[in-house]
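Dear all,

This email documents one entry for the complex benchmark we are building for the journal club exercise. For each entry we list the sequence lines for every component of the assembly. Then comes the predicted three-dimensional structure of the complex as a C-alpha cell string, followed by one or two observations. Please use this as the template for your own entries, and keep the labels exactly as they appear.
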Amino acid sequence: MPQNNVPPTRAVLLQTRRDLAFAREAHDLLDRKRQALIAHVWSMMQHAEGLERRLEEQLVVAYEGFGRARMSMGVERVEWVALSTAKATRVDITERSIMGVQVPTVKVEPRELHLEYSLSGTTASIDRAVEAFGEVLSLVCRVAETETTVWRLTREIRKTQRRVNALANILIPNYESIIAQVEVALEEKEREDFYRAKAVKRLLAR
Amino acid sequence: MEKRVFVIGERDTVQGFSLIGVEGVTTDDVDEAARKLDDLLRDQSVGIVLVTSGIANKMRPNIESLRELATLPLILEISDRLSRPERPPLMDLVRRALGVSI
C-alpha cells in the first residue's frame, strides 16, 4: 500500500470520499464502453472476413477476364485501351463517429457509363473485364471501410482498457487507502480528545 | 469528399484498374514503391491506395505501421496474379491487440 502524505482532517476525508465515488462511476462507464466496443468490433469482424473473401474471389475473376481480353485483342491493344481511359474514378469518403471514434464510410462515385474505347478493334471480352474490375473496386471500398473501422475501434478499445485498468488498479485503491488511513487517524484523535476531556473533568472535580 | 484511388504494383493489376479509370504506377522495386506511397500519403486528394501483394509482402513492416498511423488515405493490399497478401488474418491482429479477451 502506498504511503499517502495527506493531513488527516475531516475535510480531506469528505473530499476523498467524493473522489472515490467519482472514480468508481468513471470506471463503470468506461468498462461499459469497452464492452460495447468489443461487441461492435466482433460483429464488424465477421462482416470483414466475408468481404475479404469475396474481394479475393472477384480479383481472380477480374484477372481471368483481363487475360481473356488480352488473348482476343492482343497485349498492345489492351494496353492502349488501358492508357486511353480517363482516370476519373473517384470515391466518396465521409467520416462518422462510433462512440466517439471517427470511422470512414467509403462509396464509389457512380460514373455515367460512356464507352471509353472505340468498338472497332475491341472485343466483348474487354467489356467483361471492365465490368469485373468495377465489381472489384466496389468491394475494395467496402473492405477498406470495414478494415479501417475494425482497426480504429481496436485502438480505442486498447485505450479504454488502459484507463479502466488505471482506475481499478491504481486510482481507486489509492483513494480507498487514503480514506482508511484518515479514518483511523481521526478515530485516534477522537479517543485522545475524549480521554483528555475526562482527565480535565477529573481534575476539576477534585 | 471526392477522392482519387491509386494502385501501386504489378503491371496487370495496374492495367486492369486503369480500364475502369483508376490511376496507378507499375513497379516491382521496393524503394520506388515506398517513395510513391510516401508521396500519396501526403496528397490530400487521394482516398485509397491499393498495393499489390507482390510488392506489399516485401515491405510489410512499413505498410503495417503506415496503416496504423494514417487516417487518410486508406491503404489496402490486394493480391496480384501471382501472389496473395501474406498478412495475418484480421482476426489474429485484433486478438493480439486486445489480448485474447474476446
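Observations: The two ends of chain A are 48 Å apart (CA to CA). Chain A is about 75% helix and 10% strand.
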